[in-house]
Amino acid sequence: MASRLPGLQPVAPGDWLRRDDAFTGQMIHRDHLFATKRDATLAAPPHTEAAQSLLLATIVDHLKRDAGYTIRDSEIIRPDGVAIALHDEPALLIAARLVQEDLLLLDRPEGSPEHVLIAGAACFPASWTLAQKLGRPMGAIHMPVDRYNASIATRVERVAQSLRVGEPVWRANVLCYNDPELHQPRQEYQNRPFNRDLPVWVRVERQTLLRLAQPGPVAFTIHTYLVSLEDLTPEQRDTLPPAVRNGGSLSHTA
């Protein structure tokens, strides 16, 4: 699969979603953003309820293998002790309050050549907004991204169409910011300020694609890791290409 740009690899069994040592802090931040910036962080149109419910059910099934969660009929208690009710809110919001990942739902409307973003819960966007991306096909979503041309768009769509239920794939994206804030929304083509002489934070996104049903929607998940450049060892810093250290980005599979 290495030839299927952008660097997609199969996910190891049981490793679709991850819980790391930043779980508690990130979940507190996510809960706060959903409570105070709901319009900016959640897009759950009523016509996508079936896809949302399917994603939630898939996530709950995945969490059954994580002993840190207590799963009951009406609620799930997260590893940080917060109880999340399994009713009275959009299924996408419930799912996004259970895990560290931002969650996006894609589907291919009948007659459409591309998958379209139909819903999303995104607390930690890296210089994009749900409002601008919702309803767009993948090629248009990535239009402002460097090196994302028509050829790559075609290959990405081919990958999306070839996904099999229960067989997720993953890739990684690396960016550098001066600001450690995870919530970084920006309009398309809005410049992201960066000064190499200021403190630098390395932001790594682990992105996965999983088909939830055949035919049916695809879940795109984003798990964000953040570390100060100064906290990396010299060997780790040397693995970052100069373009990344100078504020650019890199898509890779490490």
Task: Provide tags for this entry.
about 250 residues; alpha+beta; eight-stranded antiparallel β-sheet; three-stranded antiparallel β-sheet; 9 helices; 11 strands; globular
Explained architecture:
- The chain is an alpha+beta fold and 254 residues long.
- The protein has one domain (9-252).
- Helices cover 27% and strands 23% of the residues.
- Strands 1, 2, 6, 7, 8, 9, 10 and 11 form an 8-stranded antiparallel beta sheet that branches.
Number of strands: 11
Major sheet characteristics: 8 strands, antiparallel
Report the span from N to C terminus: 14 Å
SSE pattern: EHHEHEEEHEEHHHEEEHHE
On the 0 to 100 scale, the average pLDDT is 89
Structural class: alpha+beta
> Helix fraction?
25-40%
The total tally of domains equals 1
Topology:
Elements: E1 9-10, H1 23-36, H2 38-41, E2 42-43, H3 49-63, E3 70-71, E4 75-77, E5 83-85, H4 91-96, E6 102-107, E7 116-121, H5 130-133, H6 138-141, H7 150-162, E8 169-177, E9 201-211, E10 218-228, H8 234-238, H9 242-245, E11 249-252
Antiparallel strand pairs: 1-8, 2-7, 3-4, 4-5, 6-7, 6-10, 8-9, 8-11, 9-10
Brief digest:
The chain is an alpha+beta fold and 254 residues long. It has helices at 23-36, 38-41, 49-63, 91-96, 130-133, 138-141, 150-162, 234-238, 242-245, and strands spanning 9-10, 42-43, 70-71, 75-77, 83-85, 102-107, 116-121, 169-177, 201-211, 218-228, 249-252. The protein is built from nine helices and eleven strands.
